[in-house]
């Protein structure tokens, strides 16, 4: 008993295995190779429709049909008067073609699918991000160039100002050292008014005069040795400048057991707080360090960060003094 058939749809030449009940008007004793039939086609959404098709093979079961198909290629004979039969069955073939054409047209009108829309959106987003990044890079490049030009101008002005200041100091020093000329009349009157010389015992020399003459005011009345100040200013490194200036203001013995701000050490909570350094003297050291940085041409934007390093230099110096003191105590007999 024939239960399945292998058919080929005429409009799109697609082949399929269908149940014999899906073929309209089929009889077992018919010459099925000589005519067209209306065969059911099921869409993916479950909708069914009958289309014009030819029966190529029949079988008593689906397995029997598969065995016949596996034997090899089989020839599909031409239908006698096939053009007439196609014209007669045009009403069966037309709906599937129209449905396919309508589906293609609807897809074209509908535009891109959801995946394509997502890809287009991602592409537009990447392009916008790229353009924004390019604009930001161009803006930053322009800002850097402007800052470089401004920095060069500031350095040139700083050098000019320093040169003018040095020239003014040299001029003032030369004027103060030059003796005032005296006329002959003033010399004669001075000689006439000069009282007779009386021999007096030599005055007691003050032990403070040499110290006062050999000190330099580094700011706000804070004085250190002139030779030490010159040596400190000649240091090429900022760290050595701060550390030597600290030991010139305080002696190493005075710095022993001191801290910068007198804060409690979080590493050793049981230890008592150390005495802080004088804020006034620390501020004078900070002003000296700031003046040094300005002379080196440091811009104002970088000044706060550079001044923060001064605290680190001071803490390092205090730690070094304490370390050397402990080492000296250990070396004692």
Automatic annotation (TrEMBL):
Example of a GO MF term: DNA binding
Superkingdom of the source species: Eukaryota
SMART domains: BEN (SM01025)
PROSITE patterns: BEN (PS51457)
Biased composition, class Low complexity, residue ranges: 174-196
Region (Disordered): 74-134, 174-213
Biased composition (Basic and acidic residues): 115-126
GO biological process, one term: negative regulation of DNA-templated transcription
Domain BEN span(s) in chain numbering: 219-325
Protein name as it appears in the record: BEN domain-containing protein
Organism for this UniProt entry: Rhipicephalus sanguineus (Brown dog tick)
Source organism phylogeny: Eukaryota, Metazoa, Ecdysozoa, Arthropoda, Chelicerata
């Amino acid at each position: 008993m024939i239960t399945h058939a292998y058919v080929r749809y005429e409009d799109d030449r697609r082949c399929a295995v269908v149940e014999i009940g899906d073929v309209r008007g089929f009889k077992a004793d018919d010459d099925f190779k000589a005519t067209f039939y209306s065969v059911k086609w099921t869409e993916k959404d479950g909708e069914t429709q009958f289309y014009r098709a030819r029966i190529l093979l029949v079988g008593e079961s689906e397995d029997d049909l598969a065995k016949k198909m596996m034997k090899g290629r089989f020839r599909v004979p031409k239908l006698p008067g096939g053009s007439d039969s196609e014209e007669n069955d045009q009403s069966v073939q037309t709906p599937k073609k129209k449905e396919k054409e309508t589906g293609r047209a609807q897809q074209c009108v509908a535009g891109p699918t959801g995946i394509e829309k997502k890809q287009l959106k991602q592409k537009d987003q990447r392009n916008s991000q790229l353009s924004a990044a390019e604009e930001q890079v161009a803006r930053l490049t322009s800002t850097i160039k402007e800052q470089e030009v401004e920095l060069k101008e500031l350095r040139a002005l700083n050098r000019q100002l320093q040169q003018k200041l040095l020239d003014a100091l040299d001029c003032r020093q030369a004027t103060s050292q030059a003796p005032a000329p005296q006329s002959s009349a003033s010399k004669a009157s001075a000689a006439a008014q000069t009282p007779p010389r009386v021999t007096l015992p030599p005055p007691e020399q003050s032990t403070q005069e040499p110290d006062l003459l050999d000190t330099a005011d580094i700011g706000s009345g804070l004085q250190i040795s002139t030779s030490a100040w010159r040596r400190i200013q000649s240091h090429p490194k900022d760290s050595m400048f701060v550390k030597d200036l600290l030991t010139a203001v305080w002696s190493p013995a005075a710095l022993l057991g001191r801290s910068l701000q007198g804060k409690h050490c979080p590493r050793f909570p049981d230890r008592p707080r150390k005495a802080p350094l004088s804020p006034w003297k620390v501020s004078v050291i900070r002003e000296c360090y700031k003046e040094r940085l300005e002379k080196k041409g440091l811009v104002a934007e970088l000044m706060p960060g550079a001044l923060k390093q001064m605290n680190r230099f001071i803490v390092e110096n205090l730690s070094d003094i304490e370390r050397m003191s402990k080492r000296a105590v250990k070396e004692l007999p």
